[in-house]
Design goal:
Elements: E1 10-12, H1 21-27, E2 30-31, E3 35-37, E4 56-66, E5 79-86, E6 93-96, E7 99-100, E8 107-116, E9 121-129, E10 135-144, E11 151-160, E12 165-172, E13 196-200, E14 208-213, E15 218-226, E16 231-234, E17 240-248, E18 254-262, E19 266-267, H2 268-273, H3 275-286, H4 291-309, E20 311-314, H5 317-333, H6 358-371, H7 373-385, H8 387-396, H9 427-443, H10 446-467, E21 469-473, E22 476-480, H11 498-518, H12 522-527, H13 531-542, E23 548-549, E24 554-555, H14 585-589, H15 599-605, H16 612-622, H17 634-643, H18 647-658, H19 675-689, E25 692-694, E26 699-701, E27 711-718, E28 721-728, E29 731-738, E30 741-746, E31 749-754, E32 759-763
Parallel strand pairs: 26-30
Antiparallel strand pairs: 1-8, 2-3, 3-4, 4-5, 6-7, 6-12, 8-9, 9-10, 10-11, 11-18, 12-17, 13-14, 14-15, 15-18, 15-19, 16-17, 20-27, 21-22, 23-24, 25-26, 27-28, 28-29, 29-32, 30-31
Bound molecules: 5-hydroxymethyl-3,4-dihydroxypiperidine (IFM).
């Protein structure tokens, strides 16, 4: 199979405005949800003075680092969890004559880079000059296989430009705790170095390692194979590797390829005890194969991905490229083993310690739920695997019942050192329940609901029953949820955050909605869920206090929001953005300044029967006081703007959101992609410009394309079927591609898309 390179799928260096090396390390990362490899300088990636964060991330492979608190109160997390950065598999040592890249400083200039998103292959050319002036081109091709998630391949080509001489290639990886010279004066970055141990596994004919963590007690096995012309060696200092020496001729290219097999994560004892067994399984994956055939197998999986998940935009090539990069990056980051999900930075950096947040459920999963539901399911099952921890966490913190999911975590335990913007974001519980219901509404997957989903729904609803209470407000008995932090992180520990209460209300209602089907089942016995408890939940949902300012016709972000000091953002010095890096948190919390969409989030997530004027008031009130310092914000305002027909603003916000990483618009892509923002951009298209509303009873599409676009095309799954939508300014074409079809409301009218009538062309 040969895949023709389609220019629309290439991230070519020339197209990028920034050429800053750390930014490029992120943008040109390759990954597959199990691993991610940053795009380091291949000759210097293991140099202690190298400025950057080169290396390999394995999703879920982390260690604990004790938090040092000035004042530590009960139940603060003892430890941070930080994703480990393993050695840099791109690193290679090249000796030209008597000059050695590991000792002498070779000058490495990037000539060109291209990431082919169709195949997942990164192709790079470097011009390398030795101190004595010998020049050679180093061509590097690499990929993380989507077919075989353990496999990473790299191929080096060497072409002498101005010399004939002996060249020696040495590929050794003998360290794990690599220093980073990245200066991180930013609360969003974890710059811990790592604290792993690397043991060589004796001698099975290729370099193989057991890498273990100290505190989290994890282990993984890793091995790599070289193409035939390389010799396996083990030197006096016990370093295993490959080497070869040859006489290089000017203008002649010689290639060397390596396939890494990077194992799954095991408990440390198992990893030690069964090392041989795990190793032989890993060997299987790279034996009797080569770079090209593994790349082709992986490229085929990428092709399938694009077939089902691509979004085609006519008339806006820049946005087109950005959205493709976003979808590509999301797919590169998605955990596929039910024990992991998507870190906020994907597997492209150690920003936020590699933690998982609500970003996954609210901003990224919708894309997967509609286009690769089986993958969304796996990531939701990850949450199920942390349910016991969430139950334990709730009781440890003093609640009688319910699950209190971690605000940010890898292993399920909360890892937020700063609880006002961390653990206090209890909306995470309802966010997870929301994503479960959304997955269920899109797939009708009963088995998932009974085996995993409903239990989470019940336990998160119990959380809100425990955390909230009744109070008299404006002469009425209301269910209130006090002392929480909503999505907006420039307000903290507030009473009755509209978004949180709204989400909790729906979480509580879900229990009754699905209760009947679980009556007298083993699950209901396990949950010990009585009719009385369900009634109380439903009652609390009905009595939920949702603060509203009638005069302004706005949903109030929280109960006392109107009392906070007003700030005109136009008067704030632009060098003070993002504000979180310049102001004490209290100076933000006491004002009406927002970091990100908050009230607007509930309008976006619950669009059914929305009130145009009300949404417009919310938008016009909240947008001017929002800094959009969070990359999750603009796409949400774009959706709201589309719904209230502020088309120019919608496009402006959307186009800024969609380019968050490719244009480095938050100036910190160096620390990793903003995976939530990339997913939010897809939502901007799906819920915004295409106008999709799905409330299980009806699937509706009400498009409103930006004037810059001639057309929009995408596919998605609904129940057992797959559809393709092609939208023009005044026409929707819907095609049933598989399955039996369903009823839909398209541009205000009802249609029945069936096998017999699989295509409809609707003028609107
Ligand atoms: O989850 C987000 C939060 O909403 C804003 N601060 C960063 C977090 C991780 O992306």
């Amino acid at each position: 199979m040969r895949i023709e390179q389609n220019p629309e799928f290439q991230i070519h260096l020339q197209k990028l405005q920034s050429k800053e090396p750390l930014f490029l390390e992120t943008i040109y990362s390759v990954g597959n949800g199990h691993i991610g490899v940053r795009d380091s300088n291949p000759l210097q990636g293991n140099n202690p003075n190298y400025v950057g964060t080169p290396g390999l991330f394995v999703n879920g492979f982390y260690d604990y680092y004790p938090y040092k608190y000035g004042e530590k109160y009960p139940n603060y997390p003892e430890n941070n969890q930080v994703i480990n950065r393993l050695f840099d598999p791109r690193f290679i040592r090249i000796i030209v004559g008597d000059e050695d890249s590991a000792v002498d400083s070779f000058d490495v200039e990037t000539v060109d880079k291209n990431l082919d998103m169709q195949t997942g292959m990164l192709h790079e050319i470097f011009a390398v000059t030795t101190p004595e002036g010998k020049i050679f081109n180093l061509i590097v091709q690499s990929f993380a296989s989507l077919q075989e998630l353990n496999v990473y391949g790299i191929r080096y080509g060497i072409v002498p430009v101005n010399f004939d001489d002996n060249v020696e290639i040495i590929k050794v990886h003998d360290y794990v705790n690599q220093a980073t010279n990245q200066v991180a004066n930013d609360v969003r970055v974890d710059d811990v170095k790592g604290n792993m141990q690397l043991d060589f596994i004796d001698d099975n004919g290729q370099p193989s390692y057991l890498i273990t963590t100290y505190k989290s007690q994890q282990g993984l096995i890793l091995t790599f194979q070289a193409s035939e012309q390389m010799d396996y060696f083990k030197d006096d200092t016990n370093h295993w590797g490959y080497r070869t020496k040859y006489f290089a001729k000017k203008g002649t290219q010689k290639e060397f390829e390596f396939l890494f097999s990077i194992g799954d994560i095991h408990p440390l004892v198992n990893a030690r005890m069964y090392a041989d067994q795990y190793l032989s399984a890993l060997n299987e994956k790279v034996r009797d194969t080569n770079f090209d055939s593994e790349l082709m197998a992986s490229a085929q999986v990428w092709q399938t991905f694009w077939l089902h998940s691509d979004v085609k935009i006519g008339g806006d090539p820049e946005v087109q490229l950005c959205i493709r990069f976003n979808l590509f990056s999301l797919n590169q980051s998605a955990g596929r083993n039910e024990m992991t999900t998507i870190p906020a930075k994907g597997l492209t950096g150690n920003g936020y310690g590699g933690h998982y947040f609500w970003d996954t459920e609210i901003f990224m999963l919708p894309f997967f739920t509609y286009t690769q539901p089986e993958l969304a399911k796996k990531m939701l099952i990850y949450r199920y695997h942390t349910l016991d921890i969430a139950l334990k966490q709730a009781t440890q913190l003093g609640l009688k019942k319910g699950a209190w999911f971690a605000w940010q975590t890898i292993n399920g335990y909360d890892a937020s050192a700063y609880w006002p913007a961390g653990l206090a974001q209890v909306h995470i519980n309802a966010d997870i329940a929301f994503a479960i219901e959304q997955y269920y509404e899109v797939t009708g997957d009963d088995e998932f609901l009974s085996n995993y989903g409903y239990e989470i729904i019940v336990e998160t609803a119990r959380f809100f029953m425990e955390y909230g209470n009744y109070a008299d407000i404006e002469g009425k008995r209301r269910f209130v949820i006090d002392r929480v932090t909503g999505p907006d992180e420039y307000s903290a520990v507030v009473d009755n955050n509209y978004f949180t209460n709204h989400m909790a209300k729906f979480n509580l209602r879900m229990v009754a909605k699905y209760a009947e089907r679980f009556e007298n089942t083993e699950l209901s016995r396990k949950l010990n869920l009585s009719a009385e408890e369900i009634d109380k939940m439903t009652q609390a949902a009905n009595d939920m206090y949702l603060p509203f300012d009638k005069e302004k016709n706005i949903k109030l972000q929280y109960q006392n929001f109107n009392q906070m000091a007003e700030v005109n953002l136009k008067n704030v010095d632009t060098s003070k953005f993002p504000m979180l890096l310049h102001f004490h948190p209290l100076m933000l919390y006491r004002t009406q300044v927002n970091k990100q969409a908050d009230v607007i989030m509930s309008d976006i997530l619950f669009p059914q029967g929305f009130d145009f004027e009300q949404l417009k008031s919310n938008y016009e009130f909240y947008e001017p006081i929002t800094t959009h310092d969070s990359s999750l914000s603009k796409a949400m305002f774009a959706i709201a703007a589309t719904r209230i027909h502020k088309d120019a603003e919608a496009y402006r916000f959307f186009s800024q959101a969609v380019q968050t990483d490719l244009q480095n618009s938050h100036h910190n892509t160096a620390n990793g992609i903003h995976a939530g923002s990339l997913g939010a951009a897809w939502e901007g298209i799906f819920y915004g410009f295409a106008g999709v509303v799905n409330n299980a009873e009806y699937f509706t599409v009400n498009p409103r394309l930006p004037e810059q676009w001639n057309s929009l095309q995408f596919r998605f799954h609904l129940y057992d079927s797959e559809y393709r939508f092609t939208i023009y300014e005044h026409e929707i074409i819907v095609e049933l591609l598989s399955g039996k079809g369903t009823k839909m409301k398209l541009a205000g009218s009802d249609y029945n898309i069936t096998k017999e009538e699989p295509k409809q062309e609707i003028k609107y």
